[in-house]
Amino acid sequence: MTENPFEPTYSLEAANTKRSRAWLGLRKLLVLMVLMAALPLALVELINNDEEQRLLVERARAELDALGTGLAGNQTPRLVGIGQFLFAVSVAHPVLGQDREGCARYLGRLLSLEPGLLNVGLIGLDGRLVCDATGNGRDVYLGDRDYFIRALRDRQPALGAYQVGRVTARPSMVVARPVVGESGRVSGVVYAALDLAFLAGVVPELLSPPDARVQLLDIAGVVLASAGADTAPIGTPAADPVLRAAVMEGRTGRLDGPSGEKPPLLRNLHPVKIGGDTVMYVAAAVPLDEVVAPLRRSLYGRLVGILAIVLAVAAVVWSVGQRLIVRPVERLVAGLRQVETGDFARALNQPATPLRELDDLQRSLASLVITLEAQRFERDQALAALSDREARYRELFKANPQVMFVYDVRSLRILAVNQAAALYYGYTREEMLEMALPDIWPGRTPGVEQDTQALPAAAHGHQPVGPVSHLRQGGDIRQVEVLVSSVLFEGFSAELAMVTDVTDRLDAQAREREGAERLEQRVADRTRELELSLRELEAFSYSVSHDLRNPLGAVGMFGQMLQAHLGEGADEQARTYLARIEQGVRGMERLIDDLLALAQVARAQLVVAPVDLTALCREVLDDLRLADPGRSVEVLLDEGLQCTGDVGLLRQMLVNLLGNAWKFTARTLKPCIHIGRETGAGGAAAAFFVKDNGAGFDMRFAGRLFLPFERLHGDHDFPGTGIGLATVQRIVARHGGRIWAEAAPEQGATFHVELGQRLHG
């Protein structure tokens, strides 16, 4: 017996090695499940915290907006009130008269009534101080101050930037107004200096939230008043670069700081406007950390509480799981290991467990042990029977006339071979059992390239694979088909190959292909000859048309010249002869046109497309009415007639069919033409009919109806060339269809058409 080449791919040692790599036990699993159960709680807390933080930040922004809006709103009426105060001062008699002593006393009384003002004064046109409320402003020059220059230039109230007063020597902000007399001339400028220290004292009273930082800035970004921490001193540029940039760019509202700002701030900037012009800004800010700090402390407390609960639950789960789950499972594992060793009795002897599921598992283990014991007995019996069947199959295999052999799909060694295979390949059975599959099924043979590994695998199934090349002794290459099936050989999986020689069949098929190729060549030669004949016929048709039209043109021209020569003096006989000449020329021209149309139908290239027959019929009928406006013909046209074909040829077909119906109803009292869908076609073809109540014809002559030059009516009754219906028949034939007619004399005719395509609609 051949040595068994197979080795098992699975072992208990490999399984135990895989089990040893497992790191997760039941105890760890229970604790992990507790942690995973607590994870959603922590995530919910974090999500809620994020939402609460968002709401806190939004509320802080709203409070800052309200703070900035309130401060800006407080400043506007104050500045407007100072402007009104200065207007009253400017029209006072002491001011208009520029009485130094009287003006100083008057302004001094006013200053005592206005808290928050440092000084009130009058400046002459030369820029020198005329008088002020303090009485200390003699010979002080103020003509270079921006508020003085703008008040004189614009003749409007003006607000100055931050300055240190030359009279008061204190930081201030000046509001100025020109003094206009009754004549309309400007005589000077009155001003009021605002006390910035007083303004700074009012700002803290309005802070909300408590941690907010508020600043009043002039239009150059200089601090006029401030409250809160980390603010610049009065008279210096704002310390916050974001605020300075916003003031320079004229941006207001909520301002975002740069990414990674330390500390992050919520800030806004509100303008203070008078008459549509911005005269100062209110800036408010609050640190983001101070807004969310209480919420963060609350979150940390809740997370610590959740962690404490989780640890307590994990400890309880660890203890209970050890007693109720881990130990019973360990006993079950020990029982399964006894099954591995074959000790079924010890595997059945397991103590009871308190859990129903584990108890069910233990009962299932006992049932499994009993089943395995029974299966082991059945297996031993089956192996004995299999050994007997295998012996019989081996004898059948050896005696089978089909070429067969068994091989190992991994090593490609031939494991078994029958006598038919040995005879076919020219070796003894012992020689073939020493060979491998590439020895008879090479990967590369002369003129053949194939994959030795892929082809046997591809041959699986009910259909053989091939032809492929097999090599026999002596180098003889044969073409074969192979059918491969999986079999059990000596207890292991192998492949059974059944080989059929197809060399003779392939040679016969090659000879048949050569004969078919020769036949196709003869058909191609005859086709070229036919095409050449058609081209010669086309050239002949056009040559005949040209040779006939030239003398016809001459006859027609000389007839017209003769008629013009005779004029009114021509007798009745001469006019009859001339009319016959003209009639003959027109008839000959129609005959030439019809002959060319008939030839064109035979050689025209079909351009197949969907065609609306109903619309095409309407077009042809419109042309007939236009050519014969004196006739009134009733037309019945069915809607939805459609087909597939060449629209040009189909139009020519309808021109001839409808033209005949129009012509042969000329002598009918109430002419009628009906174009409709064929009712008896059964949907097998694109079928329709053209019916008229005209002259009709005798059905005895129906066989001549579609022959060229055959006419069933005299030319004196109904003129024509006899080519029209022949043209129609050829058009229908080119569309794979047929045409026939039904008629009776003086009862009309019906032409039935099937185009070989299904009629849609």
List keywords for this structure.
alpha+beta; Beta-Lactamase; 50% helix; flat
Notes on the structure:
- Among the domains are: 78-198, 2-Layer Sandwich (Beta-Lactamase); 199-290, 2-Layer Sandwich (Beta-Lactamase), CATH 3.30.450.40; 400-501, 2-Layer Sandwich (Beta-Lactamase); 605-754, Histidine kinase-like ATPase, C-terminal domain (Heat Shock Protein 90, 2-Layer Sandwich).
- It contains 19 helices and 25 strands.
- The longest helix has 65 residues, at 26-90.
- It is 50% helix and 20% strand.
- The chain is of the alpha+beta class.
What would you report as the Rg, rounded to the nearest angstrom?
A: 58 Å
C-alpha termini separation? 78 Å
CATH topology of one domain: Heat Shock Protein 90
Helix/strand/pairing category? alpha+beta
Query: What portion of residues belong to β-strands?
Result: 15-25%
Shape: flat
Sheet with the most strands, sense and barrel status: 6 strands, antiparallel
User: What average pLDDT do the residues reach?
Assistant: 75
CATH architecture of one domain, please? 2-Layer Sandwich
Helix count, DSSP H or I runs of 4 or more residues: 19
Instruction: List the uncertain runs.
Output: 1-12, 444-459
In CATH, what is the class of one domain? Alpha Beta
Query: How many individual β-strands?
Result: 25
The helicity comes to 40-55%
Quick one: CATH superfamily of one domain?
Histidine kinase-like ATPase, C-terminal domain
